[in-house]
Amino acid sequence: MKTINDFDFKNKTAIIRVDFNVPLDENFNVTDATRIEAAKPTIDKILADGGSVILMSHLGRPKGVDRKYSLGHIIKKATEILGQVVYFSPDCIGSEAEKAVANLQAGQILMLENLRFYKEEEAGDVDFAKELASFGDIYVNDAFGTAHRTHASTTIIAQFFPEAKCFGLLLAKEIESLNKVLKDSQKPVTAVLGGSKVSSKITVIENILDKVDHMIIGGGMTFTFVKALGGKVGESICEDDKQELALEILRLAKEKGVQIHIPVDVVAADDFSNTANTKIVDVREIPDGWQGLDAGPKSLENFKKVILESKTILWNGPLGVFEMPTFANGTIELGNFIAEATANGAFSLVGGGDSVAAVKQFGFEDKVSYVSTGGGAMLEMLEGRILPGIAAILD
Questions:
Q1: Is 116 part of the annotated catalytic residue set?
Q2: Would residue 35 show up in a list of annotated catalytic residues for this protein?
């Protein structure tokens, strides 16, 4: 696996696919700069070698040119984080971009305008990729969040750099961290899968059953399993058409010697609201008109025991509706258990939008081994798929 450490960038221009699809407020200020910060080590290494850097990214889902989605909005924040001026090209191809590239000196950074202003980017257009490729000597992919897309800048462009393409430090770390769970894990391995739907996680569950010793199922998914096993779930979220599937997962797990842990009690509420009346009930006996919105105390005790005995932990999905403080306890406690296991030497990987949001919100970022930057890409790797953006560099 070639990374930027295998190249000397002196007097070379690196064209880097980054994922600077960051959230902006109504005044176009960056509200979370994690993705820009994550790309800094790669950029720093290339500049330290004496190279120059061209950054390309998308922002949002524009339909054609739309200044609301201009990467120009993030130049100030990128300059601040990277510690030097980031120059900006108001186009990503064409004469303006060519002129900006021609003026770029060693040690300088240039950001191209939003790639998705051109439909050719998402279409994986070869000519568009070729024009982008003409700007650089070495292609670096450091965008894990888009590695599952066959877009011009993430996959197609790599063919124009047969001997001069590599992973950035962030993407290399993502691959290495996922491989620690999927291929080189220390046992026992525990996967915590939360979220609302079994249907969205089914392929992940099927793929990782061969790789884990324990699987904790939490969040809304719980109730599809509980109902399939004959329990009463009240008004809790439940996929009635997935009950057979839930039973099949339990059967497969038993066959493979994987222990499945489902909540035994829940915090139930009489309304989907932070101010609802709540009570702790048996997960199989949720009264009519009530819904389970967080894991209960007995469940958390059970989960704690499993996690503290684990050497490898994958966390994908919250245990409850953590966005409401009344139902955040289960997710916070889970974070505490994983942090304690990590401090004791376990490897912990957190990924998926909601889990990452929870980890940041409750201050666990520095207490787990690795927080993945790519939701969809991570899920596809967990499903056992080869991501096109990764394959294009390895090819």
A1: no
A2: yes
Out of 197, 284, 298, 304, the active site residue is 197
Q: What angle do CA 118, 119, 123 make, to 5 degrees?
A: 130
Radius of gyration of the chain (CA): 23
- Our answer to whether residue 385 is catalytic in this structure is no
230 is catalytic: no
Pull the structure tokens for residue 236. 């809790």
Residue range 349-366, pLDDT digits in tens: 998 768 888 999 999 999
Closest CA to 107 of 92, 90, 76, 86: 86
Instruction: Please report, for residues 4, 26, 27, 47, 73, the alpha-carbon distance to residue 351 in angstroms, rounded to integers and kept in the order given.
Output: 24, 27, 29, 30, 27
Q: Which residue has the tokens 């690196």?
A: 14
What angle separates helix 34-49 from helix 75-82, to the nearest 10 degrees? Answer: 60
Give the chain's length.
395
Q: Which residues contact 126 (CB under 8 A, 6 or more apart)?
A: 152, 156
pTM value > 0.85: yes
Q: Name the active-site residue from 60, 72, 107, 353.
A: 353
Residues 6+ positions from 134 with CB-CB distance below 8 Å: none
